[in-house]
Design brief:
Length: about 110
């Protein structure tokens, strides 16, 4: 999980480290309540409009020394798929294709489908 704090270029925020830390504190408290460890989650101040800290480090936020958003996303480990458990395939939709038949559509949640 990565938390990107957007709108750092807003006139009310004006790239303020103080306001960023207030937001981090508020969001961390919420994340902790729902079971996440905020110490393991990178908080990244960004400006989606101007592009600050998305791909390249921002000159407007010299106080921030962490990764850019793309660096943080690239560093994330994909979750391990539970292939050792029995097959679980929730059906989302069923299509009736003329000349082929009925085709169920779903996503493999656990197990392996061959």
């Amino acid at each position: 999980m990565v938390v990107a704090v957007n709108k750092m270029d807003n006139n009310m925020v004006n790239y303020s480290e103080k306001r960023f830390m207030e937001i981090v504190k508020e969001v961390s408290a919420y994340l902790q309540k729902i079971g996440y460890n905020p110490a393991k989650i990178p908080f990244i101040p960004i400006s989606g409009w101007i592009g600050d800290n998305l791909i390249e480090k921002s000159e407007n936020m010299n106080w921030y020394g962490g990764p850019t958003l793309t660096e943080a996303l690239d560093a994330m480990e994909p979750p391990k798929r539970p292939t050792d458990k029995p097959l679980r395939l929730p059906i989302n939709d069923v299509y009736k294709i003329h000349g082929f038949g009925t085709v169920p559509v779903g996503r493999v949640e656990t197990g392996i489908l061959k």
